Amino acid sequence: MRKIAIFATMKKILTSLLLVLFAAAAFSQELCGTYLFSNRSDGDLYLDIYNPAPGSRTTIDGKEKPTVLFVFGGGFISGTRNDPYYLPWFKLMTDAGYRVISTDYRLGLKGVEMKFGIFNLIKSAKSTIAAVDMGIEDVFTAVKYLSDNADELGLDMGNIVLAGSSAGAMISLACESDICNGEPLSAILPEGFRFKGIISYAGALMSDTGTPGYAINPAPHLLFHGDADGAVVYDKTAFGRYGMFGSAYLVDKVFSKKGYIYSFYRYPGHSHDMSANFVATWPEQQRFLEELTTGHLRTVDASVIDPTIPVWENAPTLETIY
Questions:
Q1: Maximum Cα–Cα distance for the chain, whole Å?
Q2: In contact, 134 and 170? CB cutoff 8 Å
């Protein structure tokens, strides 16, 4: 029986891998260009642009659908903008008429020793905040490049949604926070620039000043998070003025109290797998993106129990990542 179970598991893994590779090969034809946006002494940074699929519907009621700027995950130590795992999801978006841009950023915790005992929390928090800031700087540099070349690329800079997974979600949430609070890193952005919306897959806001807040209303947020996440906290972890504030905390203690617009999908029993369930949650993403397009926005707070959503048997935690 054990051999049969192992064989079935291996067959399932191989089938999933073949499907991903097949989708990647097919979708490579949709990549319209790779662009160098930052020439740095510590490494060049690129972004990939995937245009809407030919014949896809790119407008709703005469309004253009937004471009989705994606920031990959990997714990600030790994990951790539063009990992084959992302391509089936990118294809869902381009087939639905959305342009996708996937960007590089520097991996700020690569090679950094991280410990999470009581005597190491502040040091690790400082290192993580520095990695997030590095990512913010790189994403904002990518936005500036897109703005400088918007006419050539056919981009509407007022119609960009920032999306991120795990570490990329933390960067995405922090980018919007920095813009709303006029932080120094946002000075590089075009005057008056705002994201149309934010999509966060298992993200959190890091803070060294206590509870996070927004000086002006943030863009509408779409958040996905499992309540058993052991890598990026679902609620909060705080020590003095340092803290990691997850999706549930942001919604329950900040967004709902201030009347900000959000759609939050909570997944009981799910761990960090919700940082990667892009395809399974596409209907919720599509509805959010369509609402951003039309301006008919809702606030959603839902607990989702859906056995069809994949669960990682050995989901990463802080200890296993670092």
A1: 64
A2: no
Confidence of residue 124 (pLDDT cuts 50, 70, 90): confident
Q: HEC profile for 194-260?
A: CCCEEEEECCEEEECCCCCCCCCCCCCEEEEEECCCCCCCCCEEEECCEEEEEHHHHHHHHHHHHCC
| Rg over CA atoms, the chain | 19
pLDDT band at 27 (very low <50, low <70, confident <90, very high): low
The answer to whether residue 8 scores a pLDDT higher than 70 is no
Q: How many CB atoms lie within 10 A of CB 268?
A: 10
Per-residue pLDDT, 32: 85
Domains of the chain: 25-321 (3.40.50.1820)
pLDDT at 116: 67
* Residues 292/159, Cβ–Cβ less than 8 Å: no
Closest-CA residue to 89 (of 138, 50, 140, 63): 50
Q: Which two tokens stand for residue 180?
A: 């709303």
- Residue 42 DSSP code: T
pLDDT tens readout for residues 88-98: 999 999 999 99
Measured distance CA(15)–CA(77) in Å, rounded: 28
Q: Would you call 278 exposed, middle or buried from its count of C-beta atoms within 10 A (0-12, 13-18, 19+)?
A: buried
E strand or H helix at 136: helix 121-148
Quick check: 7 pLDDT over 90? no
Whether 105 and 135 have beta carbons less than 8 Å apart is answered as: yes
What secondary structure letter does DSSP report for 117? S
Reduce the DSSP state of residue 148 to 3 states and report it: helix
Rounded-to-integer distance, Cα 171 and Cα 273, Å: 18
pLDDT of residue 12: 40
Q: How much is the pLDDT for 314? A: 83
pTM for this entry: 0.91
User: CB within 8 A of 209, min separation 6: which ones?
Assistant: 241
